[in-house]
Write a structure and sequence with these properties.
Elements (H helix, E strand, L loop, with lengths): L3 E7 L2 H16 L3 E7 L6 H11 L6 E2 L7 H19 L3 E5 L3 H12 L3 E5 L11 H12 L2 E4 L2 H9 L7 E3 L3 H14 L3 H5 L7 E4 L3 H4 L2 H14 L5 E4 L2 H9 L3 H5 L4 E4 L4 H10 L2 E4 L3 H9 L3 E3 L8 H4 L3 E3 L4 H12 L16 H23 L2
Parallel strand pairs: 1-2, 1-4, 2-3, 4-5, 5-6, 6-7, 8-9, 8-11, 9-10, 11-12, 12-13
Bound molecules: uridine-diphosphate-N-acetylglucosamine.
The site of uridine-diphosphate-N-acetylglucosamine has 19 residues, from helix 1, helix 2, helix 5 and helix 11.
């Protein structure tokens, strides 16, 4: 019997935890042959390899090794490498997740080769086309055959953009599948002791969006607010490589290292980061995924962005959007410290079973004829 060949694409850090549960489900399926392809968009040990180990992902079947570069160069390199690999694999379907450059690059190649495309986390919109991710989302959704969504707003966005409702499947959130699977293991980590902070008594900070860290004035304003707040609440700040470059370029490292309450550390592995998130008094971030993870954990989240493509984290979850204004950030943090945070609830279908739903839908639609053959033993 010929198995259904599915290529699962990862490229950048937030992709790894989304593909992990999908890949696991496919591996357990008797008639699916899953491949794992890493474009190499992220390549540092702390940004990539550590996550593979933490999440129990095997070595990728294919590694394109594209590395960093301008958007055009990076996207182009991924497309060239991916096309070559796909000619060898002869896959039936490609699964891409999220909104990074690897997502659109591999999606475009797949559809042009006549290979079916599934997009996980479809339909999210910030309505801000200056974000590279927004362009990646819109274009990937336009060319996908299967659009798997995490929240109701996503379907509205897709239908408004002319996508056939029959291609849209509300399945829940694969990132939360991973979070729930790793929660217990994460609880046993001793990272708080290593960082010198106490559970419930520190803020966790992540900032890496170009709109925050690439603009000197904006970034300095945010960092000043954080260093002032760190006298009220210790802060742990795992620093993304892009952010580290800017801190150096703008001459901020020494000043920040001198703030005793502000701990700048290297990017953490998945379980250590999860332990920090679950134990934090609050989280300050500009990430997309962390807005969702804090909502699932019930931890207050302050988002330093002008918008969110994940509105359910605000309407139902613990997220507040404060923009890039240091004063609004400071006020929001102080409100939480006074006990005025939102309690929030976990959104529908963020129940740890999203990956199973995705693989079922793909199998029912793409694998059924062979499934009959499998059943008769032919
Ligand atoms: C990418 C995604 C963003 C996601 C983020 C998570 C796009 C357009 N952006 O942004 O949506 O939130 O990943 O981390 O795809 N670098 C290293 N080592 C690495 C990776 C990057 O040093 O392993 C440095 C490089 O100097 C690079 C810079 O970080 O130029 C930015 O990396 P890049 O992959 O271009 O985008 P991110 O900012 O990480």
């Amino acid at each position: 019997m010929r198995k259904l060949k599915i290529v699962n694409v990862v490229g950048a850090r937030p992709n790894f935890m989304k593909i992990a549960p999908i890949y696991d489900e496919m591996r357990a399926h008797p008639a699916i042959e899953p491949y794992l392809l890493h474009t190499g968009q992220h390549y540092d040990r702390a940004m990539s390899e550590l996550f593979f180990n933490n999440l129990g992902l095997p070595e990728p079947d294919c590694y394109l090794g594209v590395g960093s570069g301008g958007h055009g160069a990076q996207t182009g390199k991924i497309m060239i490498g991916f096309e070559k690999t796909m000619q060898e694999i002869q896959a039936d379907l490609v699964v891409v997740v999220g909104d990074v450059n690897s997502t659109i690059a591999c999606g475009l190649v797949a559809v042009k080769m006549g290979i079916k495309l599934a997009h996980v986390e479809a339909g999210l919109r910030s309505f801000d086309r200056t974000m590279p991710e927004e362009i990646n989302r819109i274009l990937t959704d336009q060319i996908s055959d299967y659009l798997f969504t995490t929240e109701a707003s996503a379907k509205d966005n897709l239908v408004r953009e002319g996508i056939d409702a029959e291609k849209i499947f509300f399945v829940g959130n694969v990132m939360i599948d991973t979070l729930l699977r790793h929660r217990e293991k994460a609880a046993q980590r001793t990272v708080l002791e290593a960082l010198g902070v106490k559970s419930g008594d520190f803020a966790l900070v992540t900032l890496h969006r170009p709109s925050n860290v690439d603009h000197k004035e904006v970034f300095i304003g945010l960092m000043n607010a954080l260093s002032a707040l760190s006298t009220e609440l210790p802060m742990v700040f795992p620093v993304h490589p892009r952010t580290r470059q800017r801190l150096t370029e703008f001459g901020l490292i020494d000043t920040l290292n001198a703030c005793s309450g502000l701990h700048l550390v290297d990017p953490l592995g998945y379980q250590d980061f999860l332990k920090c998130m679950a134990s934090a008094r609050l989280v300050i971030t500009d990430s997309g995924g962390i807005q969702e993870e804090t909502t699932a954990l019930g931890v207050p989240c302050v988002t330093a962005r002008e918008n969110t493509e994940r509105p359910i984290t605000v309407s139902e979850g613990t997220n507040v959007i404060v923009g890039r204004d240091p004063q609004r950030l400071t006020d929001a943090v102080r409100r939480i410290l006074r006990g005025e945070s939102k309690r929030g609830r976990v959104p529908t279908l963020w129940d740890g079973k999203a990956a199973g739903r995705i693989v079922n839908i793909l199998w029912q639609n793409e694998g059924a004829p062979d499934a009959a053959a499998w059943g008769t033993g032919s």
